[in-house]
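Q: My hope is that you can spare some time for a protein that puzzles me. Underneath my words sits a plain record pairing an amino acid chain with its backbone structure tokens. Those tokens are not coordinates but codes from a learned vocabulary of shapes. Thank you; the sequence and its tokens follow:
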Amino acid sequence: MAKNALWLPLASVLLLLLFGCTYVGNPYGGGINASDLLNTTQSSLPAYNSGSDMICNELNDTQPCYLMVCQNSTYWLADLLGLNSWFDTTLEDGECRFDKVNLTEYQELANDSADNSTIRVFMMGFGPSFTSTDKANTYCNYSLQLATKWMKGGAGAPPPVPDTRRAICWLQRNTLPVYMYYTGGQDIDPAQTLKIAEAFDGNDTGPALLTTEINLDSSKPADVQAVREQIRALDECDGCLTVLAVRAGDESALQQILGSPPSYYSDLYDKVDVVGFGFLANDYPTCNLDEIIGQNYRFSRLILQNYSKPSIWLYAGISEGNNSNGICRFGPEQVHDFYKNIYALTPSFPSAGIIGVSFYEASDNSGPLNCTIGAGCQYGIFYANGSQKHPEINSWASYCNPFASQSFRSPLLFSRNGRGAVCDTLASDEIMSSIENAVNSPRVLSYGNLTPQVSPDPNLDFSCGEICPSESEMPRPEIYDNLAKTFASGHCQLYPQIEELADDNDVSAIYMRAIFEEESAFDPFAVSCSKTSNCANPSHLNASKICEMAGHASNCAHVPGAYWGDSAVHSECPSGWWPCAFGISQCISLPGDSAYNTKCGGSDSTYDPFDPAEGACCGTKLFSQNLIDARSFINTNWAELADEGDGGPCDGGITSEERPWAEYFLASTYYGIGAGQPLLAISKFTAQRDNVSTGGDCTGKANYAEYLRNITATASIDYGYAAVPMSTYISAVDVCGSDCPGKK
């Protein structure tokens, strides 16, 4: 009986919750007027409950239920992409909404949807990035229907505007993207939130879920006011769903922003579609999983009862290790039970208005939240090095794969006031057979390696996690790649944090690997030397001092022998030279650089350029800004840069097909020439192109990238540097088996 001890109380909770009714004495019950009741009836209850305490209070309305419906306005696109055999709809440029219905209307919609509307079912996901969702998907039969991306800011900078094209990829595969605004309360910026909303609205992306600041501290009036303004900003995206993100259990936040029932702040209440929150089991002063999950379930029901709003669990996680106060510890069996209990409750989640759950982090230490000191903090199903974590991945996959069957999922149909039972009759309980098998089988956790699932159709791309410089092949390799560089196969998976970092910054991970290959050959202790004064080493510190500043041995630096005129590796720069760039990314930033302490400084918030993850963080953030600058440069000067066929003045200019490659080329040029060095003025380019002395208009180099490559490099600036990582990238695509396009 011991092996079933955890399941038995959960089973009673599940039976109770499936009725969709509430205890009259429940503090989460709230008040309700007699005129709002359709009937007052006692439910049939298990013998261990008191029937007098359980009352069903239906809404006095002909449409007592909410139904989540998503409408596809580009129904033909699934056929065009070849995805129609695997996904029941595409949501690109579509919308999702919560309709008021009764059971008859639900059945009519289920049987016939003339307007291309589909009923949404309960959704599962994995964070904290699209890369994580993509990786987890290969162990769950490509069935996740929430793709979660934390938009990270802080330290004086709000999150950047994300690349909305990535959302479209998920929407084409009937997966809802969730964008979570998070700065730790440091930069709740309504103006930046408006830019994010406008980016999604302007591109007619589709029904992305956009949140306000995650884990709002409702005790700070300024933060509350900023979130109010965020809600107004997010309302500018017509096709998006606005998610008010609060801390788990924080009723005060709801009251301050939405109002105190039954008096609501209509200007904000009507703009919020969903309330979101999350929780980590190790942050609780108990190890009772029923209690932890139950608290959050009841908070969702409170949201539905008091505010008539659905909720989403934006993140949920558990780690082996201590709880918050150290009085108990979660072991492998508790981690297994956490996943089991979550999936066991999926049939009842819709009755509480819960539309989906996303697990916190696929890989250890990839999530952005600070850890409770002394508590477990490894919430992934993969280790930080990318290898499978057992039994965590086995436990999760053992329940996710049965849930992948459509018949195991419950439609998102629920009572509008969270008190009625009439809307709960359609919940699917088929997942229970898998739960019962697990409970009634001998308690043996699985530790074997799992094989990721391959795409069910080799001719289709099921992945949306990988970012590519372009969706088409490199059109002019004679400009962008004629160096025949090679990429080392052993570096394809080295330091898997690179994928998460690239995802955070919406840049290509395989391209960043190409840059790091050329900058350092992935040597975390690589040091470059310089005689110039534009390096961030004005005090001319030697390498040993810089190593010590970063907490490493004084001889940690690996200085190439080329600086010394030999083939050895040295620990210092030669006389007259000073350390300039460090680590795998060769960022020009000393240890403890304030620009990167918070952004890349790890758990101690002190930047270490010799730490592979922190060095990669610096390089990725730098390249991301370079890419923004490159796109701005091309956009501003497109009239002069474009090919004649794209409205430009000369044949041979940058074509529309070529433009994404040109953007990465110019971003690489920025990266190579160093901070503060501008691209050559457009006037110099046009002067050589249209030089009268050489024949006049369009007789010079008409392609700006080709023009840069032909400028003779100096000791300090090489405008043709970009061809090096571009050539290495083409090799990496082939060597690493990337799905990104190579060259023609």
In short: Confidence is low (pLDDT under 50) at residues 1-54, 76-83.
